Amino acid sequence: MSTLFTTATLADGRVRDVLVEGETIARVADAGTLDPADAAVDEVVDCDGKHLLPGAIDAHVHFREPGFTHKEDWHTGSRSAAAGGVTTVVDQPNTDPPTVTGEAVDGKVALAAESLVDFGVNGGVTGDWDPDSLFEHPIFALGEVFLADSTGDMGIEADLFADAVARAAAEDTVVTVHAEDAALFDRAALERADDGTGRDADADAWSAYRTAEAEAAAVERALAVGADSDAAIHIAHTSTPEGVDAASDAGATCEVTPHHLLLSREDLDNLGTFGRMNPPLRSEQRREAVLERVADGAVDIVATDHAPHTRAEKDASVRDAPSGVPGVETMLPLLLQEVREGRLTLERVRDLVAANPADVFGVDGKGRVAEGADADLVLVDLDATREIRGDDLHSKCGWTPFEGRQGVFPELTLVRGSIAYDARGDGERFGDAVGRNVRA
């Protein structure tokens, strides 16, 4: 199968013809220089006035399979990814069973045969993990390693963390860290929020409880342990400017989520416990400071921490509601809206969601529109915005914390040359489950 994209505007503003042959990008040439007849293509896509971007790599998703398929599974999660322009996802280990042994890795990879997009599987760390078997299997990275409990209760002690980081360094494997120090949580904040009815008078209590200081301290500790072993540390879902600065100053990499980038504690009156996540939402001042660092290059990656739960699960007290929000389908649309509104450049978005994740984690052939690269491509019209509605999204959970916001959604997503999502014309259609393990 071959496809010719004509007069496509790339993220850097160049207008090019892009020829896809099979699974790869065969040619990138000046617009108008590739003749469909000469190339003998099966399909010609006129991209005049539209942008052709590399498929996004979401380095942090929880597709919930095995163990929690009432929330999400590989089929529904990957459909949501494809509809949002994400062509590679990296699944985290806090499933049931957790991905802490080679056998568990094999089991999850087998389930991922249902994925429409390419994928990686992270190996995790618990008290009974099996590093020997784990590192014999094609894990994407080590992590998300939890320094405090979150969904799945996988928080570990300092000695085990140091041992795991040293082992990952010996295996030349990146360590992705969930950095929060539980010793610095403000437990009194939850007590103050309890109104005596089992519900909460203050949905902001979770942000007051899991303090910004707890994140900053844990980032510093993770970086120090990494330095002792000369390990590559990647700080997941950094929610504070202090955390970003600490990672940047140490030469480590970090990611920011769309919810920490675009939402703050001021949104919790509307979101309630649907806005509970770990780390929690921060002050508007901190949110703005994080956005500044995303724009100026201090942040390496935007990843979603896509962590769906059902509406019934989230509709509980702040003590009982599970942490996490969906986001794999809305990441790129929201960032493209930031481009439209002048807060980010298109090149910066390309780097944050495609080129940089490929570089940080060493994913060959991904993240760029270049000859010889995988034909992971997303076609978007920056003039075509639509309101984000949970009912229109494809995650099994059926809701979004970004309800009512504007986004720029793809009209076409290719995974290694195959159509994963197509919204051209009337309706939409999805492709087959062609996803591959990028570490296999």
From TrEMBL:
Catalysis performed (reactions): (S)-dihydroorotate + H2O = N-carbamoyl-L-aspartate + H(+)
Associated pathway: Pyrimidine metabolism; UMP biosynthesis via de novo pathway; (S)-dihydroorotate from bicarbonate: step 3/3
Active site: 305
Cofactor: Zn(2+)
Binding locations of substrate: 62-64, 94, 309
Region spans: Disordered: 303-324
UniProt GO molecular function: allantoinase activity; dihydroorotase activity; zinc ion binding
Compositional bias (Basic and acidic residues): 306-318
Binding annotation for Zn(2+) 1: 60, 62, 144, 305
Top-level EC class as recorded in UniProt: hydrolase
Alphabetical list of InterPro entries matching this protein: Amidohydro-rel (IPR006680), DHOase (IPR004722), DHOase/Allantoinase_Hydrolase (IPR050138), Dihydroorotase_CS (IPR002195), Metal-dep_hydrolase_composite (IPR011059), Metal_Hydrolase (IPR032466)
Similarity comment: family membership: Belongs to the metallo-dependent hydrolases superfamily. DHOase family. Class I DHOase subfamily.
Function (record text): Catalyzes the reversible cyclization of carbamoyl aspartate to dihydroorotate.
NCBIfam families for the chain: PRK02382.1 (NF002668), pyrC_multi (TIGR00857)
Family matches, as PANTHER family: ALLANTOINASE (PTHR43668:SF2)
Stated name of the protein: Dihydroorotase
